[in-house]
Specification:
Blueprint: H1 2-8, E1 9-13, E2 42-46, H2 49-63
Antiparallel strand pairs: 1-2
């Protein structure tokens, strides 16, 4: 999924809410034992709309029988 996201879309940072890349101010919870990034927004712009549509349809066809509900 991550490779599909990166290859299918151009990821553009928001001008109003850009990601914080400062190594000190990055963490939203300074007392946490793990890094929790502050909120930010990005815009995803499809690189090739027709190619993306075909790839998603192909993926849907390949996986539609893998997610059945069993009783």
């Amino acid at each position: 999924m991550l490779v599909r996201l990166i290859t299918s879309y151009q990821i553009v940072a928001s001008e109003k809410f850009p990601p914080n890349t400062d190594y000190i101010e990055y963490n939203s919870a300074k007392d946490a034992m793990v890094a929790i990034p502050k909120d930010f927004k990005v815009r995803l712009i499809p690189r090739d709309r027709e190619g993306l549509k075909k790839a998603l349809e192909d993926a849907k066809c390949r996986s539609e029988h893998g997610y059945t509900t069993r009783r």
